Amino acid sequence: MSRFHTPFEIHVHGQVLVRPDVKLAEIHEALKPFSRYVGARSFPDIAQSAYEDEPGIEFFPQESKLQMCWTVAGGDDFRQVLDEVCMNLNELAAVGAALEVTFYDTDYEEEESSEQDESRDDFVMLFVGPTPAAIMQVQRDLLVQDLVHMMERHFDGSELVGVVAEVDKLFAQRFDALVSSLEIGKPPRGPGGGGFGSGHGGGRKPRHLH
């Protein structure tokens, strides 16, 4: 897809474990929104990152693993592409997985910016999985990891059992609400194939998310 101006470098980073029966052709089909966006016709064409020091998009069939450390130039319309890819990967995933996506503002120059200027950098966490429960499990694990990491600066790990239990209660309530909404035929609230992220601007994030 030709573009006269691509305001972002978009870095996609993460690992998705797929079902053992998934073949490369199915991976390429799931990533077709990426292919259409960059104008690629084959998996090798799309797999290469904009940066040579990044492995790009790799599929390891013996490990049933799709791994991404891939940068592409694009705009805000790439968010829709990400949603489509996540929905496709839901059909192939064996377990829940998280993908980190950074939009790096190529127009922002720190050296030339004033206090009024603000970069449009953005960071988004996306989640995929075979079921809503699998996706919620990944979200829960990431939240617990972040909470424990932050609170262990002030408390012993053994003191945080109650905090983890409260997090589990919140996710149990969310899952129950999701099940109830499905049972009465309403669109499910909460996590699905897409994701949500923090606000943009402020301090710049590194391009590589390792």
Low-confidence spans: 185-203
H-E order: EHHHEEHEEHHE
User: What is the number of independent domains?
Assistant: 2
In whole angstroms, how far apart are the ends? 28 Å
Number of discrete helical segments: 6
**Cross-sheet strand order for the largest sheet:** 2-3-1-4-5-6
Mean pLDDT: 81
Helix content: 25-40%
Largest sheet: 6 strands, antiparallel
Label this structure with key terms.
210 residues; alpha+beta; 6-stranded antiparallel beta sheet
List the helices and strands and how they pair.
Layout: E1 8-17, H1 24-30, H2 32-38, H3 43-47, E2 56-60, E3 65-74, H4 78-90, E4 97-105, E5 122-128, H5 132-151, H6 161-183, E6 195-197
Antiparallel strand pairs: 1-3, 1-4, 2-3, 4-5, 5-6
Helix pairs in contact: 2-4, 5-6
Describe this structure as you would to a colleague.
The chain is of the alpha+beta class and 210 residues long. The protein has two domains: 8-131 and 190-197, no CATH class; 135-183. It contains six helices and six strands, in the order E-H-H-H-E-E-H-E-E-H-H-E. A hairpin with a 4-residue loop joins strand 2 and strand 3. 25% of the residues are buried.
Short description:
The chain has 210 residues and is an alpha+beta fold. It has helices spanning 24-30, 32-38, 43-47, 78-90, 132-151, 161-183; strands spanning 8-17, 56-60, 65-74, 97-105, 122-128, 195-197. It has two domains: 8-131 and 190-197, no CATH class; 135-183.
